[in-house]
Amino acid sequence: MLDDRKKRILQAIVDEYVSTAEPVSSSCITKKKGLDYSSATIRNEMSELEKSGYLEKTHTSSGRIPSVKGYRLYVDELLKEDNISIDEIKFIKEKLQTKVNQIEDLMKIATNTLSEVTHYTTVAIGPKVTKQIIQEIKFVLLGSRMLMVVILTDTGMIKETIINFEEDVYENQIQTINLLFNKKLQGKPLEQINEPLEEYFYNEMESSANMIKAIIDQLNKLIYEETKLYLEGTNKSFDLPELRKAETARNFINILENKTEVVDLLDSEFAKDINVYIGEELDDENLKDFSIITLKGEDSELGTIGIIGPKRMNYSKVISVMRYIQNLIDQGGI
Amino acid sequence: MLDDRKKRILQAIVDEYVSTAEPVSSSCITKKKGLDYSSATIRNEMSELEKSGYLEKTHTSSGRIPSVKGYRLYVDELLKEDNISIDEIKFIKEKLQTKVNQIEDLMKIATNTLSEVTHYTTVAIGPKVTKQIIQEIKFVLLGSRMLMVVILTDTGMIKETIINFEEDVYENQIQTINLLFNKKLQGKPLEQINEPLEEYFYNEMESSANMIKAIIDQLNKLIYEETKLYLEGTNKSFDLPELRKAETARNFINILENKTEVVDLLDSEFAKDINVYIGEELDDENLKDFSIITLKGEDSELGTIGIIGPKRMNYSKVISVMRYIQNLIDQGGI
DNA sequence: GTTTAGCACTCAAACCAAAAGACTGCTAAA
DNA sequence: TTTAGCAGTCTTTTGGTTTGAGTGCTAAAC
Questions:
Q1: Which domains does chain A have, with CATH numbers?
Q2: What is the pTM of this model?
Q3: Contact in structure between B146 and B160 (CB atoms under 8 Å)
Q4: Which of A324, B106, B114, B224 yields a CA-CA distance of 20 to 30 A from A247?
């Protein structure tokens, strides 16, 4: 579709614009390696790239900036995925090596690392818990009125919660409950904890009926509590020149405030591996000047991470770093 | 020191400046209730207030803005503590009523509420855990290689952590460990978990020595992990006109990045009840254009909350809301 | 056919001067 | 003690000019 030279020019323009945030002139491209034509030649090429929709001008006599279509081509075909330095590799390795016990901690660290290395705002949602299979449930009496319930799932994830009772609870009650819950719920997915025990709610074993109900209620809260959201590096974004513009800044604040949209995006089954969404590609007024890159773990128990940056984001760097982190997590097991 | 009229004028100026962020002119004050003198009279008064250091000018012919000394007087003597609307009371009550099981959750909700109502950035640190007394320790085996340790303290706080072992762990080992830990550690403050068990690290009961050490190591991590920090509403702050200025914005970002300074402040024993720190009163270059208001729970198990806003912060509103939340928490027990 | 030098043209940004406007401070009268 | 009135100060606004970076096009060179 585009000949090789045009592609190389487009690539050079994107790279330049990503780093300077200023419209790119023909003479600037002249200086790039492998493109030492006269500015007039480049000008002609740029003019054609604009006609086919890959470039835009901010005003008649300005340099060019990439259009969404231009960024798209760049991301799909031209981008180098090795844009990561030794120092960065070292830094990432070190941070991810921290021994963690729970996937949640890993997500937190990964989110933080990604934001530190890329300097963009990073957001993540934890793994979906509803489909996981209950392997074992433990009850721990704390003091005389607090009961901790711990659930271990087949993937090794641990969820726990605490229930406060108005009256004293006794060990033998706990043992009965323990037997009952494990018998009825082991092997069931978390989302199905309700029916198997409903019959006991208003049943003969009155003494424990209230307790059972209270526990189930609390577990439901635990399972359906808002998806846990990790957010890092929002402040860094306010250094971006695009956020000088009041309107763009407002939009960015809106995005962070109504996180739901971002969560929906991260959550969508559409997202697989690494995905790039550029500006208007996402049909959201607030997001029109931003791009989002998402990373979903291979086994979906890991949750999804997303980076929000300006359309002029350093796609190459972000994707390289994401790819590296992905590999690290994949080999490392948890 | 200042006569009544001067105080009322100062108060009017602070109130006006807080809401407009523009230097206040003499004629503006004329319109305020109880101050219907001519602008010339007000001008004379303002001139004297400036001479005594309560007001400042941004340039020779501008209106006046309060100085730190001016704000100080306002906060100490002139401020109304009932600046809170019925709607706000309703909103706060509703949010804080959410049943929580753990102090951490309460802190999170309080921080969030405070930020929602005041529109300022709110930061909080959790309660100090090291001094609390161990009441009981429970061990829960999850699967065959994961051990959860739960500690209940005298104040009803619960801390838990998980340890992954390389080899299978057996119930009878856990029972021994359980007995040992509870015998040696009950009644001791959390910060003293090390010595009582050191003798067992390399001791006769070899089989468990490694386990004991691993558990103690992990508990140390838990106890001395960085003080948990809650942060809410940073984005809202970027709407403030003072953050239009690049330098002030930079300072603000710095504050959020090196949270340590804020934590130190919140953590200092100096902070009691409600405290106000205005601009240069805190000897920190980054904070010179900001004020911080802190709220410390009566029983220090609650941690401390701080609000960071511009010097032109709505002291009256913030303090009113804090006071209300404080009362709510105090009566409510946890 | 492709490349390039050269020049006219465009438009944003920088610059400058003048005018307007919002204040104050001071003086003198009420 | 208060206030009307006015001169003086400094910022903000306005409008016009210049500058300069860039383009597009044409015609010559390769």
A1: 4-78 (1.10.10.10), 86-126+227-330 (3.30.450.40), 130-223 (3.30.390.60)
A2: 0.90
A3: no
A4: B114
